[in-house]
Amino acid sequence: MNISFGKNIIMYDIITKILLGDSKDILKEIEDDFIDLVVTSPPYADRRKNTYGGISPEKYVEWFLPISAELLRVLKPTGTFILNIKEKADKGERNAYVLELILALRKQGWIWTEEFIWHKKNCYPGKWPNRFRDAWERLLQFNKTRDFKMYQENVMVQIGDWANGRLKNLSQTDKIRDNSKSGSGFGKNVSNWLGRSKVYPTNVVQFATVCNNKNHSAPFPKELPEWFIKLFTNKYDWVLDPFLGSGTTSEVAQKMGRNSVGIEIIPEYVNLAKEKIKKNEYTPSLFTNKINKIKIMV
């Protein structure tokens, strides 16, 4: 099976491929420079042992690099890779395997462009003797090149209450590009936001965790892939999740009019993901490898 539909195509239907197998093997069947966005959350170190067996922190980088090498190959030069991951704490100390992975990915050829923080806004309280409960996770952005697609206007937010007073009483400094006093070279012109109802978001995103999903041990909130699909893709672009789980990324991509490939190693989750897709009210997906309703440009 080879996942290849040609470089110049016009899509008339949404293709959703949900494939059973190991990512490092299945990814080899996808052609070079094909995917627009990778958004995924692999098993964390020593987590989900009952589901995925668990990978020790000491072996995590070694385990992940063959997969990320394939992701680097299949991602378009204009594409983006979003990696949701979080360090574990063990014996009173944070493990450094995520930091080690970041450095290893950079050596592999990835550009570490940005780090988003996912604030879990419904995280319930908790405390340990030497730390507080985690309420955030990393969303690491990697790219192949510095010239990647990004549609920032698609994720703009309401300007907020700060504008009510600040924009009504502008000082002379607010009307010019006021350089940072720290010498960083950054500056702001507050008057640029006069008359605007929306602004660009920060790199802290807030999504509630999924609390009522009994079918998977670590389901994505739908808002997470949705936000990045808005930010980095257009309709009919290709979205890939190499650790699909119960199918949230594919489900969201289809509803948003994006083609997608999801890879999952657990047969029960593959069946669950396909059931989710079938229930979508969007245009029926094509699960086969037939190139139905796709016109090859001459």
CATH class of the largest domain: Alpha Beta
Q: What characteristic shape results from the CA principal axes?
A: globular
* Low-confidence parts: 175-180, 283-298
Sheet having the most strands: 8 strands, mixed
Topology, number of strands: 18
Spatial arrangement of strands, main beta sheet: 2-17-16-3-4-10-7-15
Q: Rg from C-alpha positions?
A: 21 Å
Provide a count of the helices.
8
Please state roughly what percent of the residues sit in beta strands, choosing from under 5%, 5-15%, 15-25%, 25-35%, 35-45% or over 45%: 25-35%
Give the CATH architecture of the largest domain. 3-Layer(aba) Sandwich
Instruction: Determine the structural class based on helices, strands and strand pairing.
Output: alpha/beta
Chain-averaged pLDDT: 80
Would you list the SSEs in sequence order as H and E? EEHEHHEEEHEEEEEHEEEEHEHEHE
Query: What is the fold named in CATH at topology level of the largest domain?
Result: Rossmann fold
The CATH homologous superfamily of the largest domain corresponds to Vaccinia Virus protein VP39
| Terminal Cα span | 24 Å
Assembly type of the shown chains? single chain
Task: Estimate percent helicity.
Answer: 10-25%
Number of domains: 2
